[in-house]
Design brief:
The protein is an alpha/beta fold and about 210 residues long. It contains 6 helices and 15 strands. Bound molecules: 1-O-pyrophosphono-5-O-phosphono-alpha-D-ribofuranose and uracil.
Length: about 210
């Protein structure tokens, strides 16, 4: 059953407003995206399984918990890099894979240019992170690639999703839940999300 969770939190709504504003400088954009990603990570990791472990407090034995499953975070380059720090704040032991993809400006189809993935994809919960889910081409391509290499359990986490991207991802990979800060209205004729926040990669790295 495909799911989309739009995270409802006042701090996330405040951060998203900063990210949407045209005049936000790239340094503030980068810092705010990292904070927003941490809130999304907190929600996206809610379903991780725990394993009980016996521990001792200074007073007596009790039961504590470890995460049962390894966590792998895979940013889609470039813009996904802006969300990694927010994720590893909570899970510093997470392994990180990198997938390079950019959208062809005429066809809007993703073009792969890099892949470097850690071992253990088959045993891990893989969080794919990218601020923008527009046509869904990059997300679908990334999950195709990760499934071909053994990945089995995924969550796709983005900041802003377009209805077209959600539909494409749900149709192709219904087993992959989507977690987002906002579901926006639609794509424009250049496949940009409206109202959106513009070109996420350019705004993170100051390349506009
Ligand atoms: C952006 C964004 C996603 C993709 C979304 O990347 O970060 O990866 O577009 O669009 P889609 O859903 O239609 O595939 P972009 O291609 O601009 O590359 P960049 O991150 O290097 O700027
Ligand atoms: N990529 C972006 O960075 N922004 C959009 O609105 C669509 C794709």
């Amino acid at each position: 059953m495909p799911t989309l969770t739009v995270v409802d939190h006042p701090l996330l709504a405040r951060d998203l407003t900063i990210l949407r504003r045209r005049e936000t400088p790239h340094g503030t954009f980068r810092k705010t995206l990292s904070d927003a990603a941490a809130i999304l990570a907190y929600e996206a990791m809610r379903g991780l399984d725990l394993e009980p472990v016996p521990i001792e407090t200074p007073l007596e034995p009790t039961t504590g918990y470890h995460l049962r499953t390894d966590v792998i975070v895979v940013p889609i380059l470039r813009a996904g890099l802006g969300m990694v720090d927010g994720f590893v704040r909570f899970v510093p032991e997470a392994r990180i894979g990198h997938l390079g993809m950019y959208r062809d400006e005429k066809t809007f189809r993703p073009v792969d240019y890099y892949s470097n993935l850690p071992p253990g994809l088959d045993r891990a919960h893989v969080f794919i992170v990218d601020p923008m889910l527009a046509t869904g081409g990059s997300a679908v391509g990334a999950i195709d690639h990760l499934k071909e290499r053994g990945g089995r359990t995924f969550t796709f986490v983005c900041l802003v999703a377009a209805p077209e991207g959600v539909e494409a991802l749900h149709a192709t990979h219904p087993d992959v839940p989507i977690v987002a800060a906002a579901l926006d209205r639609q794509l424009n004729d250049r496949a940009y999300i409206c109202p959106g926040l513009g070109d996420a990669g350019d705004r993170i790295f100051g390349t506009h």
